[in-house]
Structures are given as structure tokens and as C-alpha cells.
Write a structure and sequence with these properties.
The structure is a single chain. By secondary structure, the chain is of the alpha/beta class. 40% of the residues lie in helices and 12% in strands. It has a four-stranded parallel beta sheet with strand order 2-1-3-4. Helix 2 packs across helix 4 and helix 4 crosses helix 5 (137-143). The longest helix is centred in the last third of the chain and has 22 residues, at 114-135. The radius of gyration is 14 Å and the shape is globular.
Amino acid sequence: MTADPAKKPCVLFVCVHNAGRSQMAAGFLTSLSRGAIEVRSAGPQPSHEVSPSVVEAMADVGIDISREVPKELTTGAVRDADVVITMGCGDECPVFPGKRYEDWELADPAGKGIESVRPIRDEIRTRVEALVTELLPARHADAQ
């Protein structure tokens, strides 16, 4: 993944407003990687706050993202990431040669209640768990 095996991988999650999907993904990756992966999230049109139903859905599974603030996507953030995962931001994310990009097609939790957000949260968790297994295979093997 990275040229320097001692350097931890950096993952950037991007969704339009950085108030829902990318915040949940970052919360899961931060928790599940236990500091072994540098985690960032941002959006090309950041909202003024993380969606309250998203904060509540994550609290349901023991992850507190209540202090997170949506951040603006910068070219530097994309350049510094090893893996860039987009979630519905289309062409608004800059592309750099040699970067790994994935687009996760997920429903947008914006304006939805907690019951609608939970399935989105659970799908994100499944995808993040697979990402951790891929980026940290030794840790996964140790946990077996």
C-alpha cells in the first residue's frame, strides 16, 4: 500500500457534505484500526454539523462522533491519502495518479431518521471491517 512499511496507511473518506456517510466510516475505521490507520474525512460542500441522526446511530454501537465537525475537501488531503473512498460525490473529488480510489454506493442519510440511518451505518461497518482486514492483514491474523 505505502512505500514505507513503517508508515501507517492513510484513508480519506469523502461525501458531499461530510455530515453522514464519511463521518460514520471514519468513526468505524478509527475504532476498528485502533490507531494503526490514519483516518480522515472531508467533503467538497461541508455542512455546518454532523447529522444528529448519524451521531445517534453511531452512539448506538458505542462510537462517539458528537465532537466531529464537517471538513472541507482539499487537494492536499487527497494527495496525502493512500486510499480515497468516495460516497456519492461524483466528479467533485480531485484525482491523482497512483492513488487507490473506491466509490462506495450507499444511501444518503441526510434528512433521514434514526431507523433509516441504522441500515446505512451497518453497511458502512461491513465495508470498513473488510478494509481493515485488507490494510492490516497481520493484525487480523493475530486476532484469529
